[in-house]
Amino acid sequence: MIEMHQIYKSFGRNHVLQGVDFTLNDQTVHALMGENGAGKSTLMNILAGIHRRDKGIIRVNGQEVDYQSPKFSEAAGIQFIHQELNVWPEMTVLENLFVGKEIHNVFGKVNERQMTAEANKIFDRLDFKLPLNKRTGDCSIGEQQMIEISKALMTDAKVIIMDEPTAALTDKEIDRLFDMINQLKSEGVSFVYISHRMDEIFKIADEVTVMRDGVSVMSSPTEQTNYNDIVHAMVGRSLEQQFPDRTTVPGETILEVTDLSNHSFGMDGINFSLRKGEILGFSGLMGAGRTEIMRSLFGLDKGSKRVVLNGKEITINNPQDAIKNGFGFITEDRKDEGLVLGASIKDNMSLANLSSFSKQGVIMNAPLDEFVSRMSDRLTIKSDKELMVSSLSGGNQQKVVLAKWVGNGPKVLILDEPTRGIDVGAKREIYTLMNELTERGISIIMVSSEMPEIIGLSDRVYVLQEGRMTGELDKADISQENIMTLATGGQLNG
Q1: Rounded-to-integer distance, Cα 410 and Cα 323, Å
Q2: Between 62 and 332, whose confidence is greater?
């Protein structure tokens, strides 16, 4: 049993935790929820010895503890599996399992035979099969996550903290993860489960604690609460409607893409169109080719295509061509492709449109500061504009990427998984901004794995299966049943 009582933590003038209470019981899956920036990860970083608390008490089985580094918390059986998985892609599965903890024989050489036996013992316990000589970079995200869990169990973990563990998993991998969690719980392991996916909480969690603005505002057995209670606790108000009403009627066709092909990804002869002020959804199962189409259109990946924008054929061989022609692209991987993590909020927001704030090669700070302040207010980014973007929560990082492209005044804005890993309150803000952008005549192409998002926002939907277009749905025909029928290769009646 772990008790965290009145935990405080500040980073400079940023007061992240302001008296948080949290209790993890034995053999329990405890969901920790809250908007981005609520302090969830910071609280768990303190429990894991990554950060030191300013004030407060931590007790484990009634004994007060003070973990001064992750080494001490790991020795006590607490393991933190972060959202950004800590694997070495060029090393084998076996090497990753034992990195820094290799077993040596009496002659000082690495004892691969004993390490293999230990690894197989853990894999058998999890009913998980993976070649130990496989390069970890060639493993799926789900397999990499199982490697991280296996590493935790090899240290005899009693508590495993998981931060957004299903953000990049397939449905099958999520089912396997949940089976594994339930199995380990029955063996005496407890879990802290950080997630924004509400449906998962009611499937896997025994208890739930909600944080808001650095304070724990709700704690309850999951069976004694509901979706509306949790959302109200997270945002401090009721969300009457998850998706704002569409206020824009799409106009004339402004973009036509024909014969888009990329044989490296098995795509051939993709055709689609986009209207002015439209939100055009792209749906399909994992691996259907949605992201690959957008990357090829934007010139990030090579391939052939014919693109007509506002009646004029244009050439897009690279991202510079796309930007010059009025395209913006918020990629699926915001950390590696959307942000310069070592730069400030201000610098990141201005990356795509520095020319708008420059005169004869000199940056004009006054209009740039005004733009950053306006976008920060509009997207409720409360941090100082000079703060490093790497220190922001995932949701605030996504808002910075949005601000960067919105400030560039695009004609066509491509959003690939725009709300992945973002809480319900921030999602609503982004949905409202998308509405406002289409009112201004900007056209949006949205790729999303979240079915409610596709159904709730799209004016029209294209569905893909294994690199080919299987159907187009107008607003009246957009439904989960129709999308899944087309996504699995079926045909619609009539």
Answers
A1: 8
A2: 62
Candidate from 35-44, 315-324, 459-468 with smallest mean pLDDT: 35-44
What mean pLDDT do residues 162-172 have?
77
The angle subtended at Cα 325 by Cα 321 and Cα 329, nearest 5°, is 75
What's the sign of the alpha-carbon dihedral 82, 84, 90, 92? positive
Q: How confident is the model at residue 11 (pLDDT cuts 50, 70, 90)?
A: confident
Residue 480's Cβ-side half-sphere holds a number of Cα atoms within 13 Å equal to: 6
Cα distance between residue 67 and residue 167, in whole Å: 29
Beta strands in 203-263 (DSSP E): 207-212, 215-221, 253-262
Number of Cβ within 10 Å of residue 480's Cβ equals 12
Whether the model pTM is above 0.70: no
Altogether, the residues listed in the chain come to a count of: 494
Residue 71 CA: distances (Å) to CA of 48, 153, 384, 399: 9, 15, 33, 34
Question: SS3 string of 83-136?
Answer: CCCCCCCCCEHHHHHCCCCCCECCCCCECHHHHHHHHHHHHHHHCCCCCCCCEH
